[in-house]
Amino acid sequence: MIEFKNVSKSFWTGKQRKVILDNASFRVEPGNNLGILAPNGTGKSTVINMMAGLEKPDEGAIVKSSRVSFPLGFMGGVVSRLSAKENARYVAKLYGLDPDYIEAYTRWLCGLEEYYDFPVGTFSSGMRARFSFSLLLALEFDIYLIDEGMPQTTDAEFNRKAGDVLKERLENATVVIVSHQAKTLEKFAHSAAVLRDGQLYMFDTLEEAKQLYDYQTQG
Ligand SMILES: Nc1ncnc2c1ncn2[C@@H]1O[C@H](COP(=O)(O)OP(=O)(O)OP(=O)(O)O)[C@@H](O)[C@H]1O
Asked: How many angstroms from the chain centroid is the CA of residue 180?
């Protein structure tokens, strides 16, 4: 479970205070895939980063009783001058896992062939996406965080493999996915929430969340 207790978060832009959360309290329950809808620039990444522990709240507390992933697509832990292989082995050690297993798994899933042994800094954005997604799926979490859908790769073979693995993972794990469009959430979300005016409004269904969201974005 991830619980936000009276969490406030804002940024000072130099001209104004941008409020992301204002004394917000909500929970992400295991087994209940949650989709969060919010327009671009309103704080989706910030909320996901707070769940991952990459951003701290200004006030309040975030309590976690599950293993929560880093956000899908997050490359902060990956060192550009090291190869995918070296990064995978390093991350395995950080998580106390078998480096041989994590190397073999990511090598198989990302399908980068000989580029797996090249520095990550030389990768195209699609190759980076494939590597970071493979790394995320190689590690076992109770809650997976996804920012704006699946990585956009044009590699059909990778998309199929990664989609299958994610589906399998989600039989025992939960996903939190944020997007500015309901369509991205449809495949995963059981319930949904709308980030608005510093609060996260929770709904039992995506349909209900969409009604508030459409009203908000069109009005
Ligand atoms: N470290 C920071 N310092 C100042 N402002 C920030 C910082 N991080 C984010 N912001 C601002 O907070 C707001 C929300 O940013 P965030 O990236 O969370 O939004 P988002 O909904 O994920 O946007 P997008 O969908 O465009 O990525 C934006 O106006 C952004 O400029």
From this structure: 14
Residue boundaries of the structural domains of the chain: 1-67+143-154+176-219
Q: Ligand 1: distance of its center to the CA of 157 in Å?
A: 33
Cβ-defined contacts of 91-100 (< 8 Å, 24+): 91/135, 91/139, 92/138, 95/139, 97/139
Paired residues of 50 in beta bridges: none
Mean pLDDT of 82-94: 96
Choices 2.60.40.420, 1.10.1780.10, 3.50.20.20, 3.40.50.300: CATH for 1-67+143-154+176-219? 3.40.50.300
Q: Which position has the higher pLDDT, 126 or 87?
A: 87
56 lines ligand 1 (CB under 6 A): no
Confidence (pTM): 0.90
| pLDDT value at 106 more than 70 | yes
CA atoms within 13 A on the CB side of 50: 26
CB of 18 shorter than 6 A to ligand 1: yes
**Does residue 45 have its Cβ closer than 6 Å to ligand 1?**
yes
Does the pLDDT at position 73 exceed 70?
yes
Sheet holding 191-196, edge to edge: 68-72, 143-147, 174-179, 34-37, 191-196, 199-203
**Residues 38/180, Cβ–Cβ less than 8 Å:** yes
